[in-house]
Write a structure and sequence with these properties.
By secondary structure, the chain is mainly α. The protein has six helices and no strands.
Length: 102
């Protein structure tokens, strides 16, 4: 029963985002949490070096550490709604149900 309630709630939320987008607070939430995370991570020289290395290896852009927030800030409500309409389809949903052993 709990699974059915959860699946319905997820479906309703996906449909709401798909139809009406998200409010401004939610649209920029990923950027806000990323900003807080970056502030903590960049406090250490070792972490900064690891990020620079990862950005160079995976994205071929060592400067990404300084420009990533501009990319997050560039995401608009219309962008989120466009992606939601494209990917939030009933036939493209995957549900994973896990059970704890303790």
């Amino acid at each position: 029963m709990f699974r059915i309630v959860c699946l319905r709630a997820i479906g309703k939320r996906r449909l709401k985002v798909k139809r009406g987008g998200v409010n401004k607070g939610r649209a920029f939430l990923p950027g806000a949490s990323q900003r807080r995370s970056d502030e903590r991570v960049h406090e250490s020289a070792l972490n900064r070096a690891l990020i620079l290395g990862s950005n160079t290896v995976f994205y071929n852009d060592p400067n990404l550490i300084y420009t990533v927030m501009k990319k997050y800030d560039a995401v608009t409500k219309a962008d989120i709604q466009r992606v939601a309409k494209k990917y939030f389809q009933p036939d493209s949903r995957t549900v994973v149900i896990t059970l704890s052993h303790g």
